[in-house]
Batch of 3 targets.
Target 1
Amino acid sequence: MQSTPNTPTPVPETIIEVTAADLPLYCPMPDKTLWNGHPRVAIPAAKLGEARCPYCGTQYKFTGELPKGHH
């Protein structure tokens, strides 16, 4: 696919599966390099089972049983 100067290049969607062991969940994840990051932001994926980072658009999907009560 060619892009023209007025057409934005599509960004591939990033989906990260997370479990209760990853809570509390923040983006960027600890394994990301700092030079290409953004401000650290809490991701509330445990509440609805999935959530998207407002900065980079990474989607986090909770796998397994959602935590019950306070975590």
Target 2
Amino acid sequence: MDVLSRFGGLDELIQVIYQGFDRFIVLSAVNESTWTVYVGLKGPEGRWWRGSWSARDITQFVVRPVVYF
């Protein structure tokens, strides 16, 4: 089973996060090659950020080699 197929629950996720007076909007999209997260800051100084991870990126981050002592 492909790693990204396990991220199906995060596809089309929309979440509003309140941090003090700031409001952030988080959007998540999953396709067969990447998981992409968009974060937007609402307001006159609003900005958007985007991060994207491939199946290889996720596997390298999550799967760690076991070290025996």
Target 3
Amino acid sequence: MDVNQINAYLERAREIIGDRSHAEIEYDNDVVAHLSNGRDIKRAIAAANQKHSKEALKPDAGHWADLTARYQYIAEHKAILKRLGIKE
């Protein structure tokens, strides 16, 4: 993968994930960690909400599928960054 491809990927990932504060990144990382430990999205978010009350999500029933897709994307993105040796 050349530098232009990496930059294009990173730009697109920023568009998809959006701007996040440091606290929001920590919250997202916590959700991803819980998911990677086998929790489902509802339990992962509940656990992250306990640790990060200011960033706590309170999704209604219609948002769980979107949140699942978002956190799967973030997990994959983190794995790609790790392979490329790029810090978030």
